[in-house]
Structure of DNA polymerase sliding clamp:
Amino acid sequence: MSQPTATDRDATVQPAAFDATVEAEPLQTVLDAAAVLVDECIVRPEPDEFRIVATDPATVGIVDATVDAAAFERYETSGARLGVDLTRLAAVVGMADGDDLVGLSLDPERRRLEVRVGDLVYALALVDPDAVRSLPDVVDFSEHFVARVQLDGGMLSRGVDAAVMVSNHVEIGVEKADGDGENGGSDAVRTLRLRAEGDTDSVDFGVDEGDCGVFEVDAGAEARSLFSLSYLSEMNRVVPSGRPVTVRLGEQETPMDLAFDVADGEGRVTFALAPRISRG
Amino acid sequence: MSQPTATDRDATVQPAAFDATVEAEPLQTVLDAAAVLVDECIVRPEPDEFRIVATDPATVGIVDATVDAAAFERYETSGARLGVDLTRLAAVVGMADGDDLVGLSLDPERRRLEVRVGDLVYALALVDPDAVRSLPDVVDFSEHFVARVQLDGGMLSRGVDAAVMVSNHVEIGVEKADGDGENGGSDAVRTLRLRAEGDTDSVDFGVDEGDCGVFEVDAGAEARSLFSLSYLSEMNRVVPSGRPVTVRLGEQETPMDLAFDVADGEGRVTFALAPRISRG
Amino acid sequence: MSQPTATDRDATVQPAAFDATVEAEPLQTVLDAAAVLVDECIVRPEPDEFRIVATDPATVGIVDATVDAAAFERYETSGARLGVDLTRLAAVVGMADGDDLVGLSLDPERRRLEVRVGDLVYALALVDPDAVRSLPDVVDFSEHFVARVQLDGGMLSRGVDAAVMVSNHVEIGVEKADGDGENGGSDAVRTLRLRAEGDTDSVDFGVDEGDCGVFEVDAGAEARSLFSLSYLSEMNRVVPSGRPVTVRLGEQETPMDLAFDVADGEGRVTFALAPRISRG
């Protein structure tokens, strides 16, 4: 095994090991989520989780997608860091039905990932991980978030789909529905709101806190930023309908994130999305 | 409210009002039917029914589509005449599931129609109704019809779909199946017949009266005309399979019409189609 | 009826007869199978079976597809040999649901095949059978086959679909899974194997004899040849999933064939596929 002083590069040359078996569905979700932002990525089979972290070339979005080691039927890993053509891997894993088992094992000498689906073994040539765009220094935005709202994925999708009809960006925020004046006290209804303004039409989507599973806002905080719909609508395509998704928002012009569980909570996809600088 | 002497133009400037709530399905049917012929149309929320009447640029087809006021959960209207981009309105209403409630309300000052689907409000900019092609003087053909046949929408669709395979026009008529000679008496079987002749292949589709819900022909009358399949096949796409559709035909070279109920009879779509001048 | 000395050409000029009724599903299967290789074909309604035999222009593949006369509700034939535009016939028969009855009858004077689906009669102009590419002298390869393996159609499809991802040809053979050396005796597990090598990725698909319904290999024989995936993947599209398909293989560089039952065994589709000359 590589010494603690070994660089990541050494880790791929060293006899890294990875051998795992898991149901197809959580793996497909994680791969589809990563494919929203990148064609190639680094897969990191860490001791406690199978993880993909990736960002698009413009670094507007970041995806962090994991399946817990506990969700695997078999999970053995040691020092592996795999450069993967996501399109091809997703196509092979996509041949399995959702509850079929999929096997993944690293052939370090031939630099291939063997993907097993039933009687099929697909040997996927790995990409040099150093040729894959590395993550920029990811700032942890957790402390910037002032609001956390959990709602049904299908509800959020309807708002995003409608916003796409009229514009290429959308304002997302949390507000008190009854205005700031007479009724804006502590008993006013709070609402997660998406607003998009097109040249002629506009969209206003608001989910009251009573229809949300979680609705937490820091006292006195305001959350409202403008986001690119070209990114958000792609992220929206992998958000599961009928299952909860959590949106976290910050003060003006801070990123948002969007998170949902994989399978039965044995994994998680989190998208972070940088704000657009608002117009005007 | 506008005086009886007010022109239609005044009606849209006056504080016209429209506020209504209805299940998505009948509204979608009416919008889809209108979209067969036009991209923009005038919507007339009359006191007793929500109605769209429109004709294509060549005035070959006319659609008259209504949902009764009684089918609405809420229906308040006064002097409204709305110029609507049908494509955009149909897309928004199409986001609702069939039994979701859809709200429509006119914002007369901003000249917008607010469409509510769940937590979503889509503000649709209205088109100047005077810029929408107005209906030509519509002649009432009722007195010209000599035959009225009701059959399952899916049966009619099969005939139209087959005719499209061989030609761009189809002859539709009612005839006595056993010929005019020896057996053409009152006990001969009558048939609704579609015939299309292609360069090499031909289609002959005949539904006997015993397979039709209604089969009425004026004594001694003949009904047979030639129609454009480019129009009829588009109309055919919104005809419901498994539910009755009524075809009315006139003497040679008169229009036909095609009518079916919306939802549970709380509305109706009627297409009228002018005949082609027959060849030869 | 034509004398035994009459040529085939005479048979189409003579008052040949064909009148038959059958459920749509077996007929659709046979037409879809033939359409894998040709656009036009000769249909031969023989006394005991309705049969299409055809080969593609390059004569790489041959299809032999039949429905037994016993599967028909009505089957009367005499000397008919029909040149058929397969695309058009398949489109008409495809309008029927699987268990709808489809009628076929030859109108020899007008050289048309009347296709009846419910209330629809589609008159399909026949092609001069002498203008349809005739079959080359077909060699019977039965004696060349050394292996016969029956497996689920869906399993085979997965192997073919994966091979297409990496290459345009695939090696198919039967082998002993435990190698030729220490364990290659009579108790070694035998496997049907598909292998495809791409520029970077490779596919290895192996079904053990225990997962096959039939697994017969001539003693001491080797079966392994290279086949074009452009042909095999098209054939694969009509192979039924969830039902058995039989693969027969010969020694190196001999054809393979692929056969499956139509409906409940009342017909059969057999594809023969010539090998590619292997590289290197």
